[in-house]
Amino acid sequence: MQRRKFLKTLGAGAAAGAAVPFLSTASAQETITWDMVTSWPKNFPALGTGANDFAARIERLSGGRMKVRVHGAGELVPAMEVFDAVGEGTAQMGHSASYYWRGKTLASQFFTAVPFGMNTTETNAWLYHGGGLELWDEVYAKHNLKPFPVGNTGTQMAGWFKKEINSLEDMQGLKLRLPGLAGEAMNGIGVTTVNTPGSEIFTSLQTGVLDAADWVGPYNDLAFGLHQVAKYYYTSAWNEPSAILEGTVNLEAWNALPDDLKAVVSEAAMASNLAMISEFAVRNAEALDTLVSEHGVELRTFPDEVLEALYASSQEVLEKQVEADEESRKVYDSYTAFQQKVRRFTDVGEFAYLKTREKVGV
Amino acid sequence: MQRRKFLKTLGAGAAAGAAVPFLSTASAQETITWDMVTSWPKNFPALGTGANDFAARIERLSGGRMKVRVHGAGELVPAMEVFDAVGEGTAQMGHSASYYWRGKTLASQFFTAVPFGMNTTETNAWLYHGGGLELWDEVYAKHNLKPFPVGNTGTQMAGWFKKEINSLEDMQGLKLRLPGLAGEAMNGIGVTTVNTPGSEIFTSLQTGVLDAADWVGPYNDLAFGLHQVAKYYYTSAWNEPSAILEGTVNLEAWNALPDDLKAVVSEAAMASNLAMISEFAVRNAEALDTLVSEHGVELRTFPDEVLEALYASSQEVLEKQVEADEESRKVYDSYTAFQQKVRRFTDVGEFAYLKTREKVGV
């Protein structure tokens, strides 16, 4: 049903039998028009606009030989059907986050964020120079997908809380919106986590269905107005010290591209990655200022005992997953070995410098 | 003399009268062959290979329509003549560091590194989303150059010292290799700085002409074998918390490019930037491990009073420069205003996360 409807909207030029218009190597000057489905509202700050940015770079780089039509969540397919839509060729490209697909492949968690894991620079080093991207290719090929890092949110925040958290006791029975593996870690310390859709967070906090909610960071949280329904902003990043945004291409569509257009998609992805990192850094800073000075938001950090308990709990949850899933084991081992190595320089470099800046009063 | 010699080596296809082969819009399928001169030995770790990487991305993205021949320092022009060579069109592209050109334009300092300034992510946010790149375009257009960030070293180290530094007193009269504005800041606290060429650092340390030397970081310093001639590695990054690598294009050659090839160069630059950041993160970590475990290098950090004195001194040096130079004032004001804004999120995000990681014992 959906496929027929989709072919109708494709319009002239689309081969009726094939869901995926390919560029034949014989007709190098033909325009390829692809659809990109996303898990975000159209133009959603940084994430939706990030998809637009990735598409625009592809068009510019290909001199217009490739056109990419970006679709917000729900336009062609719902947010949570992007993975299947691209794998099946309903659309040629996707823009989403891999940990949404834990139901399809547990290993996907590691290609977005890992609690107490690597920061943005360390993560990109793993992807581009540590075998991370090769492993992602391996995991996703089984689902007929070719993946690319197309962005990173940088450090995310721990969430909006209606009451202050002064002890581990204060966390007991709390109703918190936090999906995935991080949610399981929270469950392990006595919290009740709920996977509330983004659009329902505001109302759930307002009515008390939720006591707290984790969304992204200042820029996206301000856009959702969450400060109006929860007073305390916990900034203790633990669950998503960085979070990779995923671009996918239908593997057959990818393989059919000539080499220079493969380079176009791949380089556009890399440029989009750096562009989004840079954008989040400044927009988060501006939004944080707005939240604090204009909206009276109070910044807080979890007590040490909460962070320690979350660390222990998240390690348990991770171990349990990789014990039961060989693919997860393989990716996790690569991830953790790399983290141990690369963080040793983060510590004497980046971390030490930030301490110096604080110490001399910059 | 040099130009005639250069045209001889260009070979067939180069118009004898013009030093710069341009792509005419009428002949879209012609190959453009450009020369890229660099300030590094051919294939020098991360920096020389970074130039190769940038060139290779341009070739791949253009489907071979653009070919870029990379020249190590001294092949076509010496390291310190890259700026002029590209501005004059002796070569179409350059790969270097802007602060080498303080003699041409004082404002160039801010497009490499600023003592106690922004880290890598903050710097890229300023360049791509804070007006930094636009200002760089403005400054460099006057010298017939189009600039691009093509890499970043990440946090650099404070240098190799033959004796331990336990007080500000220990710095008095020290002979230290440290060029540019940072060198001037060191002079302000009683140190004698020398601008020794990279290739002479090893011998100068060995013979005692230098008591200490600042080069780059573990990866490049290991390549120079500096650990063999100085025992203490001071890791207190203060002078180059991040350092931008500069790619330049002769402005006329740039303007003559069709839009899609402009996009090729620009996107290749951005991808090269992220690639180098990622490479330095992992190679520095590996080299640091080698230096410490295989070569017995002892890591140290400057005493607080030294860092505080360096901060005061560097602020004085910066103020003096911008007072006397309007262009510097304009760039510096943009840089510092942006740093004040963006670092507020670094502090509750990246910095806080690294503290958390340390606290829970990851």
TrEMBL record, chains A, B:
Transmembrane annotation, as ranges: none
Keywords from the UniProt entry: Signal
Leader sequence segment: 1-28
One Pfam family from the record: DctP
The organism's place on the tree of life at top rank: Bacteria
PROSITE patterns noted in UniProt: TAT
Claim: Signal is one of the keywords in the record: yes
Protein's name according to its UniProt entry: TRAP transporter substrate-binding protein
Organism whose genome encodes this protein: Halomonas rhizosphaerae
